[in-house]
Amino acid sequence: GAVVSQHPSRVICKSGTSVKIECRSLDFQATTMFWYRQFPKQSLMLMATSNEGSKATYEQGVEKDKFLINHASLTLSTLTVTSAHPEDSSFYICSAKPGTGHPETQYFGPGTRLLVL
Amino acid sequence: GQQVMQIPQYQHVQEGEDFTTYCNSSTTLSNIQWYKQRPGGHPVFLIQLVKSGEVKKQKRLTFQFGEAKKNSSLHITATQTTDVGTYFCAGRSFQKLVFGTGTRLLVSP
User: Using an 8 Å Cβ cutoff, are B2 and B91 in contact?
Assistant: First the structure.
């Protein structure tokens, strides 16, 4: 089956630093990748949708200058949390949608737990 | 904006009992997907429903999409301890997938 990886799986950083999270589709090309955040015991909230080679589309209320998304290739998207603060601590999950096969299906990465001190 | 609510938020059953979670959208959906997330894990795709009134089965799991394409349900027959997790529906509307609030299922042996 389709595999999506995320790196790192867990990161602890100091307030004010920037953190980059990578999302890779390992065995398929992803025309679209999505970034979600999930607070403990809550649902997934879509942050942004990124298409390869174009600017990401951010959901209402998500600061695009704070959460920088780059979708440089059909297998890699990155989310950079700039000047992270404790309230940014969360579980960040990416998902990727294949360009062929079952395009409506999204495959989720294992997630990245971010803790900002 | 679009909201997708699930009830109940939490259910604790004895192994062998049945379980149902209901999903309701504020807008009409083009399709609905169901995911299972184990504690500490990430969502895993279970199924997608597209047609009005569609019913699909996967072993002990039965998924239903409402006639108006605004609600859905997931029914588990004779739960097992391996069914533990949070079940999310996710409705697609205007190219966007919006996750429901989730139902957390706990199964006691």
Answer: yes
